[in-house]
Amino acid sequence: MGALLSLPLLALPSVGTLVTFAASCCGAATCSAVCSACGKFQSSMATRIAYAFILLINSILSWLMLTPWALEKLQHLTLDYMRITCQGKECSGYVAVQRINFALGLFHFILAVLLIGVKSSKEGRAALQNGYWGPKVVIWLIFAVLSFLIPETFFQVWGHYIAFIGAMLFVLLGLILLVDLAHTWAEYCLEKIENYDSRGWRFLLIGSTLGMYTASFAMTIVMYIFFANSGCAMNQAAITINLIVLLIISFISVHPAIQEYNPKAGLAQSAMVAIYCTYLTMSAVSMEPDDKQCNPLIRASGTRTASVVIGAIVTMLTIAYTTTRAATQGFALGSSGSHAYAKLGEEEVEHGLIDQQPSSARREMRAEALRAAVEAGSLPASALDDDDDNSEDGREAKDDERGGTQYNYSLFHVIFLLATCWVATLLTQNFDKMEMSDGFASVGRTYWASWVKIVSAWVCYLIYGWSLVAPVVLPDRFDH
Description:
Low-confidence stretches: 1-29, 37-41, 331-359
Number of strands: 2
Mean pLDDT: 75
Number of helices: 20
Helix content: over 70%
Order of helices and strands: HHHHHHHHHHHHHHHHHHHEEH
Strand order of the largest sheet: 1-2
């Protein structure tokens, strides 16, 4: 982390450049070591963890660069001998956040272009996705450094228009995937119940539905008690609208006309959408500013700095996880069409008894057979060397993409590109530098962020409602 905090030094000539270059190399080595530790997982899993980790580090760095706190601490370590500036201006603030996220976005954009059409890990370009971690980290850091040399006017346009559009697309994508997940979860449970008449799956489906509805109503009650006092018209409207739409969408899901065209629709999907949208509404009212005395959490006693830091880190972790999940759920984005991607875990289930369990025994039997053939003169001695070179059993045990990629590599990086736009927009939109806690900036504590969450809940209800009504309105497009 210390190496990343020293990024702006690279924009300066002299000793600072050499020191930070060495730190960057250490950062690359560290990332390579982390990815090597992930080797015990499947190749695709380790890759996703690594990219999520990079996004997390980049997001936290962006948050630290929002205020002068990080640079002041770094300067203090040099006994204030080294003054850090960027083209004569301070390196923190709105533009600094845009620069750092632009660098990672550019990194993912280049990978998205280079990985177009990759269908399995056997292709040479697949190594760009799953390997070369040291060089990739160095390239990412170089992009971050070079971004501080780009004129500030570019990032004013980028942040206000391009990154903002990318952020809204990322939010919309997350809502679509949430609705898709709701349908997939309910249909999967129903399939298990129909095929196996399983009491366990029936209990899980009914229990989760009741639990999510209970949690939704409980959060609504809590919001009315603590965030809907007199004078808090915005909160009262948001909470009431969410409750009304929740009830409407639940009624629609079990309406006879909907059930006729889509018998698998029901309260299970509605419950998942309801709890998510209610959570968004609660998050919105609990993170808004307290200028109208409508947010008691801000006035609560306790350590403000710890609250801000923990809130920021949890937010960044959530973004990293959500991005990784969204980037690999290609079925919701049409990637299951002409390009057949292998389902996660499918090969292990189908071939585990043949390929994986006895792999070490099979290698040993093969080696013994080759040695016997060489001793009998049937094969040359070089066959033993060829067998060692061509043996891929160990690699196949960890490579779950030799038969087909688990997800669309290019789409994966496009979604990560949109995630960098969302992080930059979330941190900088309507940011007031005066509202900080001991040098730390609160993440998402603006009316803009609150309204984004409130409107996102409404849009999510709309998308889910359309998924219910569409088969009725357009029966020829659906084969229910």
